[in-house]
Design goal:
single chain; 64% helix; elongated
Length: 91
């Protein structure tokens, strides 16, 4: 039977890895959206008032969907953090 301390350390490794990966995915996506490949068209109205864009305006956006980048960044960061923390905490 596996000792409880090992199970708890494994849970901590998974939770911290998830948090690190989520932060990395958000950071990478926010940086990528500011580039020209993910940029929105300059003709779109300013949304400082907080209202969402109309559907007609959403359909004319230029650029790529950053979901794939966020997905890849999350899993790469999760894997790296998991391996690093596993080596540090579990030996």
């Amino acid at each position: 039977m596996v000792p409880l301390s090992t199970v708890l350390r494994t849970a901590v490794v998974a939770a911290v890895s998830f948090a690190v990966a989520a932060g990395c995915a958000v950071a990478v996506t926010r940086l990528a959206v500011r580039t020209r490949f993910f940029a929105m068209d300059d003709r779109l109205p300013d949304t400082w008032h907080g209202r969402p864009l109309r559907q007609a305006d959403r359909e004319q956006r230029d650029g790529l969907n950053p979901f794939i980048l966020a997905f890849a960044a999350f899993w790469i960061a999760f894997g790296v953090a998991n391996v690093a923390l596993d080596a540090l905490l579990l030996g």
